[in-house]
Amino acid sequence: MFKIFNLYIPAKMTLELLVDLAISILSFALATWSVYVMTVGKQDFSYWIQQGFYPLILYTALTILLYTALGVYRIDAENSLRSFLGRTSVAFAFVFFPVYWFTLMFTEAGSSFRVLAFAYLFQMALLVLIRYIFLRQTALSGMTRRILIVGNGREAQALSRQIMENHGTSYSIVGFYPTQQNDQPPVQLAGKVFDENTPLEQVVLDMRVDEIIVAVREHRGGVLPIRQLLEARILGTPVHNLPTFYERLKGEVPLESMKASWLIYGGGFTQGHIRAWAKRLFDIISASVLLLALWPIMLLAALFIKLEDRGPVFFQQERVGLFGKSFYCLKFRSMRTDAEKDGVARWASTNDNRITRIGAFIRKTRIDELPQLINVLRGEMSMVGPRPERPTFVDMLEKDIPFYAIRHSVKPGVTGWAQVRYAYGASVEDAKRKLQFDLYYVKNNSVFLDFFILFETVRVVIFGEGAR
């Protein structure tokens, strides 16, 4: 796994993307050849290559972008063939019309429909044979990293469970190296526990360990075999603590194992004038483009809201923004006008009876958030960032959750890392989990990560995933 523009990119994902790139090119080329063979005409194959060159580039680029947006490369995505083919087929459906239109408008080829139809058939066949079956049995299985967990307590148990349930194709646990944790009761570990009298560096060499993860909450008092960890590190084996490994593994920062010293001395949290200028330019351009493209949908949403109960179309609510400053967040109204007639602030819940019929639809498709593009143009929000929360909830959560105020060091967003990575929830526990994703974003924010989150938002909208 490596890091590009503050975003962790698994080696597995990189290989899959390169293979998909080759499959897309090969599928389009085979489709062009098939239509050429079936077509009786005066032009030779070089003419077809010339006419299909730019459509091929567009086809390949859009395919890879949409695979990324629809979650084809997500490590924690559903692993079934049905889900894989469903997402790749949806991507092809979005690719078809732009490539077909481009071919008709800018080339002389008259068989673009047949070429794309054959391309789809070839692409699905090659994806199943090469990508889903052959690649998983050969190259990807050889990319599994062997890790040794230092620790034998609850943290080690939770880490091993997380890896085995969600990341078994990327990591293999060779075992656990015990530490002196007298304040914790013994736990059942799913794997080999090495003898503490065996030198750790010997375990690393004998078991061909690629990485060591220190899964211990308290590091003081001689708990850790510091000298042995140093020896292993000198041998070239990377050693990571829990927050660093979880940040890379899950794209979040775990509150339970995080300390202020890690935030202070660790990397990330880069802001600066250039970053602020680039993000503001990105916000203005993307919000303007989306408003121009989506105004018909916004007009229809406003019309249906008005027809359902004759109430106001828009809903303004006080939210906490950058550095704790309040602003009024604009949304399409999705609840009854008397949703909080008693004046008590409440989180929206799943199947909330205060939500109107049209409100349920616009919430599920995120149409209710579109008026916040105006907040973006005003400079009160960004396209990407932690979701803004109400002052009442912020006061409560800052008392209950450590480091909660850190999320206010960047502008709140229309969409965010927590929204594309965490399922719907509305409670203090859900707020804690979302904060872990928000901390990852604040720590690693970049324009590249913003682009990636916007792509992921497409998946959330199409497949109804993510959080509100």
Describe this structure in words.
- The chain is of the alpha/beta class.
- The chain has three domains: 2-140, no CATH class; 144-250, 3-Layer(aba) Sandwich (Rossmann fold), CATH 3.40.50.1980; 272-463, no CATH class.
- The protein is built from 17 helices and ten strands.
- Strands 4-3-5-6 form a four-stranded parallel sheet. A two-stranded antiparallel sheet has the order 1-2. A two-stranded antiparallel sheet has the order 7-8.
- α6 links the parallel β3 (145-150) and β4.
- α2 (45-69) crosses α3 (81-106) and α3 (81-106) runs antiparallel to α4.
- The two termini are 30 Å apart.
- The chain crosses the membrane at residues 21-41, 53-72, 84-103, 115-135, 281-305.
- Residues 279-462 form the Bacterial sugar transferase domain.
- It is found in: Membrane.
